[in-house]
Amino acid sequence: MARDRSIQTVHAGRLLVLGLAMLGLFGALVYRLWNLQVAQGMEYQRRLAKQSLRSVRLPGVRGRILDRTGARLADNRPSYCVSLYLEELRRPGSVQRTIDGVMELLDRLAETMDRPRQMRPQDVRLHLNRRTPLPLVAWRDLDETAVARFMERAAEFPGAELTVEPVRVYPQGASACHLLGYVGRAEAPEGAEAPEKFHYYLPEMAGKSGAEKRLDGVLRANTGGKLEIQVDVAGFKFDEVSRRAPGKGSDVVLSVDERIQRAAEAALEGERGAVVVVDPRNGDVLALASSPGYDPNDFVPSVPAPVWSRLLKDEARPLYNRATGGEYAPGSTFKPVTLLAALHSGKVSADTRFSCPGFFQLGSARFRCWQHWGHGSLDLQSAIRYSCNVYLFHAALAAGPEAVQDMARACGFGRKTEISLDFERPGLVPDHAWKRAARRDSWRDGDTCNLAIGQGALLVTPLQLAMYAATLANGGTLWQPRLVRQILPADGPAQDIAPTRAPGGPAWEARHIRVVREGMRDAVNMPDGSGKRARLPHVTVAAKTGTAEYGIKGAGRKMTWMVAFAPFEEPRYALALLVEDGVSGGTTAAPRVKQLLAAVFSEVEGMDLPVSAPEPPPAPAPEPPPEGEEAA
Fold it and tell me: Phi then psi for 331, rounded to 5 degrees?
């Protein structure tokens, strides 16, 4: 009996120990479950939500570009699209079943809207692989008819919806195309460039050329919108968590006047060339045109391959901005620089006279004047009026090449103007160091003669010549071209952009610039002036023509120029106009300058002036030779 009790006691103790152990294990399990589900439940829930959360960047609204009068040069318009929400269209089973279902829906939609299907099965598969939670845009930029047909039967197409995207539009068409540029799809920022991380980026516009590119940081919204969605294990969207509305970029007001811009383009119609019109009082760029051009609307949202191929193959190079990127010999438009250098050096005065027999003998080389029978004895003002080469040869050799080169640089040549446009070229002011490096030869008097009349290796851009014309007009202030007048933020006060003087401008004496300006006035308003075809009634125009040979010597190919400003007494407009492969500056460029200025004074200032296209030039036989010949 005692033994039985002992055994029962042992068994009871073991059961007690076992029960306590089981109770402890159960308590540990309960604690672990409590810890997981209660104490750390919120943390695990946060991790789960983070793993199933996807952030999408919504594009901001791009700012508008306006001209100085408020006319819209670049704006945004709504593009109506049909989008498919694939989470509502997926089918159980393989991915191919979902793709087949989407294609069936697309076929029905295409028939309803009477629009060809644009999506292929591989496009749907690619979207499912890469952008599953996002809607699939099946049609973009639908017209009113297609939109109406869809909306009439929208209830028959679950999973399809009409959506709206902003699209860049250029209301003026091809006008100011090189100045404005165009937009394309923006690249998603990576690494340190991305201020905020996103899983997906909806298409956003970015400037690719012209003002759209240079002002992209102003026009694009600083902060885009943000959409957070939850996805299931297959990657399909099943809930929208939060949404932040996208911001809006700043509007930009340019100095350009669309009326003057169109007049400038009309003056170049049918020609290859460029024209720049500026305000000599503050450097405002009133018009900047390069011909031929293109329609930037063709580039939105992306340029079709046939259009891009056609533009690239066009021998007239419509994508090329001749106004800022074209480098040309300026011809006789450069002569005021030479004469101002000679006056500044003290070697020549306004009363200095030189005789022009029709040529200038320099050793064994003979430099001809464009008027082969000569101009006779001339003073400086008459040399500008008649554009006499021989007078310029004498003046340049008397002053020395360094004086002419220094004056050219002071007038802004040989450096960029720093306009707010891309692909600007600096031109070239050749000197001894350049010739030694480029041609392994020293500077000679023949080079000075070529430089004096704007030929040889000298290169300028139409924009540089326009700013130089403005400097002649205002008496010596070289402005940096102002393209942007004002920035209008969406949520702040307007920011005015002040005019800026270019560094290192010329220091002309009043008496020197006065005689040069008077010579330019005579060139237009005297019956025998070289620029007489630019004369206007009721407005005194001052100008200088230019003709420069290029290409193979003797081939007769010429760049024809005119720089001008008006009214002479109080100039408000200064310009440079170039026509490639013209007859001469006086014959080709001058009538176009007349047409342009007549349109400006008529449309902008309300004067009653006849505006007519220039008459066809006469037969080339009786035309005078170019205004200067390059020496070897």
Answer: 60, -145
Task: Output the six-digit token pair for 280.
Answer: 């000599």
The predicted pLDDT at position 90 comes to 79
| 283: nearest Cα among 471, 465, 421 | 471
3-state secondary structure of 391: helix
Terminal C-alpha separation, the chain: 140
Dihedral angle of Cα 189, 194, 195, 200, to the nearest 10 degrees: 70
Question: How many CA atoms are closer than 13 Å to the CA of 415, on its beta-carbon side?
Answer: 15
- What is the rounded average pLDDT of the residues 463-490? 97
Sign of the alpha-carbon torsion through 347, 448, 354, 515: negative
Amino acid letter, residue 566: A
Two tokens, residue 30: 């309960």
- The distance from CA 303 to its chain's CA centroid, rounded to whole angstroms, is 16
Q: Which two tokens stand for residue 205?
A: 């516009």
Tell me how far CA of residue 620 lies from CA of 177, 343, 612, 623, in angstroms: 33, 36, 23, 5
The letter for the amino acid at 265 is E
Continuous H helices in 234-286? 258-267
Residue 344 pLDDT exceeds 90: yes
What secondary structure, in 3-state letters, does 56-104 show? EEECCECCCEECCCCCEEEEEEEEEEEEECHHHCCCCCCHHHHHHHHHH
Q: How many whole angstroms separate alpha carbon 333 and alpha carbon 335?
A: 6
Three-class DSSP category at 273: strand
CA distance linking residue 502 with residue 483, whole number of Å: 14
| Residue pair 613/574 in contact by the 8 Å Cβ criterion | no
Give the pLDDT confidence score for residue 615 in this predicted structure: 67
The full 3-state SS of 89-153, as one line of letters, equals CCCCCCHHHHHHHHHHHHHHHHHHHCCCCCCCHHHHHHHHHHCCCCCEEEECCCCHHHHHHHHHC
258 three-class SS: helix
